[in-house]
Structures are given as structure tokens and as C-alpha cells.
Amino acid sequence: MDIDPTQPWGLAIDYAGRATLTESGHTIHVNVSDTSLSSAIGPDSISGTYSPVNVTAQFTETGEGGAVLRGTGRITIMPVGTDPVVPDPAAFQRAVAESLTDFATNAAAYVALCARWQPDGGAEDGDGTTPDPGTEPAPDTEADPETSDGTAAETGTDAGTDGDPAMV
User: Using CA atoms, how far apart are residues 119 and 3, in angstroms rounded to an integer?
Assistant: First the structure.
């Protein structure tokens, strides 16, 4: 990925700080934005400093059945002293590199998840494996105790609330 030396941020961005580029076969969306909530660019009235600038890169790839895999990267550029942020032409490269790394990490995580999941006709126990024949599933020890009529039982009161359930 080449930096365009004629552009302050290293690539041509539109009026809203957006750009689109292609890297490693992916169409990547880049966004350059400050972190202020104001539409006017100026120093913060309390701290006297300008807002940091985020350079983000994101892309998605879609597959069969609506499967979506994303890669995102973000670089934050801090202002120096009371001066505004100076454009960093290499920031978008670092953000794109982070998004590609994130994509590869997410892809590996999905591969591991899919390898762990074993389709078995709907008889799975929720963690992707089939229970051994003849074994009982472990009881849910964290469930609220129930009374004989199926409603939740009260388990006691906090000593500091004098038994008032509204104070729990």
C-alpha cells in the first residue's frame, strides 16, 4: 500500500474524512475523524487542547448463508501540547495493517469454533459436543432454587436492609 505524498493523510479523503482502498484483495473503508462532539474544530474550552484524531479501517467479507467476517483497525493520534493534530500520512497504513491482522485473527477463531462444533442431529449439549451415552448432564448449580409450586424461592435477606425486599 502506497502513501500518496501529495495528500496530508497519505491518501485522498472526502469532505467527511472517508476513503476507500483495496489491499490484499479486500475493499477497505478508511475514516479520519476527530473525537470531539463539536462540528467546529477548535481547542476544548476546559482543557485548552485539541481533540485526538482517530484513523480507522474496516472491511467485511460475506459468505454463504449470510456469514460475515470483519476486520477492524484503529490508530489514535494525540495532539502535542495545545497544537492541533498534525496529519500522519502513515497512520492509515497502520490502521489497515491492524484491520488485516484483526481479520486473520477472527478467521482463525471462527475456524476453531467450527472445528469444535460437531453437528449431531440436534442432540448436542450446548458446547458443541455430544454427551457420552449413559451419562446424566451435570445439574445447573447456579440456578435459583424453586419452591414446590415452581416459583423462585427467597434465599434470605441482607442484614443491612431489615428484611425489606425493596432495599436489596
Answer: 47
The residues, ordered by sequence, that sit 6+ positions from 45 with a Cβ below 8 Å of its Cβ are none
User: What's the pLDDT score for residue 149?
Assistant: 52
pLDDT value at 51 more than 50: yes
Cα 9 to Cα 14: distance, rounded to the nearest angstrom: 11
Q: What is the rounded CA–CA span in Å between residue 20 and residue 31?
A: 9
Nearest-angstrom CA–CA distance, 24 and 96: 10
Residues 6+ apart with CB under 8 A from 103: 26, 59, 61, 69, 70, 71
Where are the extended beta strands (E) located within 11-160?
18-23, 26-34, 53-62, 68-77
Whole-prediction pTM = 0.65
Choose among 35, 33, 30, 5: nearest CA to 19.
30
